[in-house]
Amino acid sequence: MIVLGGTRFGSLIKGCQMYQLFLKYKPYRLILLFKWLAIIFPLAAIIGSCCALFLWSLEWATKTRFLYPALLFGLPIAGFITSWLYSRYGKLAAGGNNLILEEIHKPNAGVPLRMAPLIFISTVITHLFGGSAGREGTAVQLGGSIASGIGRIAGLDKKDIRLLLISGIAAGFGAVFGTPVTGAIFALEVPVIGRLEYRALIPALTAAILGDWVCRLWGMDHLRYSMASFSQMGHFQLNIILFFKVILASIAFGVIARLFSESLANSAQWFKKVIPSAPLISFTGGLIVIALVYITGTRDYLGIGTIAAQPNGLQLGSFFDAQQHHYWSWLLKFIFTVVTLSTGFKGGEVTPLFFIGAALGSTIAHIIGAPVDLFAGIGFIAVFGAAANTPLACIIMGVEMFGADNIVYFAAGCCTAYIFSGYSGIYLSQTIGTEKPDIRSDTILAQSLKMLQRNWWTPASDPLIFAKIDPSEKEPNPAEKVKEEATAASNHAKFL
Fold first, then answer.
1. From 1, 49, 99, 362, which residue has the greatest number of CB atoms within 10 Å?
2. From 1.10.3080.10, 3.40.50.10860, 3.40.50.11930, 3.50.50.60, which CATH number describes the 246-432 domain?
3. What is the pLDDT of residues 53-88, one digit of tens each?
4. What is the pTM of this model?
């Protein structure tokens, strides 16, 4: 009996120890994990399904336009109707991607649920009638508006809705391009230049993977482009001449990305000054696109640019073929896209940037005697990375799109283009978390001396710093800190 009682007493002690260990490691974190999984799973399923429907609709619109070329003449009317719908019913939804980024920075009224159907329908209309636009904007806005709606239904607070918006962006981007890891990194990287939102890492990655998986379950496939490997025996070996050619080309990629972003913003402002009515601006933009078709004598630069009307027609994959020479395609696509998007047509900038970057990379490769497929691929990701200020996401995109054999060249291209693109970008609501290195020689020398002084003989509290820190990173005052801790404790108690 004594032994039995001792055994029971020992078991009781072990149970108490396990309970104390359980409390020590904060069980609410496990509960929070299950809570987020319960929210992310349906969110990703809905966004993945919407993206599948969107991709199918986009393919239908493109093929229908090929069958009925006369649809192009309806572009001005289509633009007029789209802009009128946004003016009448859009309200906050007209902010698009920038509204979502603003809500991530400082949650306010939320992203209206009407944004999802409006951007879906208007993007399909743009492609059906021949506007030069992409699909990323639609995916991001679908993800953001659905995430915001689910957050309100679930009764989440502003901090949680912020993380949910990032997860929605990740799911939409990952599903529409078939690049889940890129989608997650893009969502973490795009709100603030030079800083990743690590607090949303697990929700964003989970949402992106599940969103892509659900989209594929619906039978959606994604285009991939072949690229030769420059590795030997499975190991990367740097070709120093090729490396410097990549750097040279990437400077051009960064400059073109900056020119694209500034042209888009300035053109939109100019049209607003000249024409007071948004529907009339879109009507005028449609007329300009039709005029460009007749001036250039081709329809190759209409629509999304990933498929061609004819089997041997010009499309994005053409630039990976060393036998084809299209020296001015990047400029023509640039003009068509700027006119389309700056006059109020809906869609996205990313796929046209893929087209522009690949075309420019192919052109540079032919001129300097470099591998065409490699330079087309680097231009594909680097121009977008520079325009969106998301170099890390685009390095990962290079791996998911083309394989990891040339990742060193991908990294060199994306980072160089990012530096040379300045602070211009296609997302005007981005904030600066860390400044980019200034490419002027005198500034580089001054920054280097400051870094040496800071690291070697200056205390850490010295105000002399290399980069501007985002205001959200500043230490809160003691009163605010106590208030935040009390709020966090209250939230944790609710989850328990």
1. 362
2. 1.10.3080.10
3. 999 999 999 999 999 999 999 999 999 999 999 988
4. 0.82
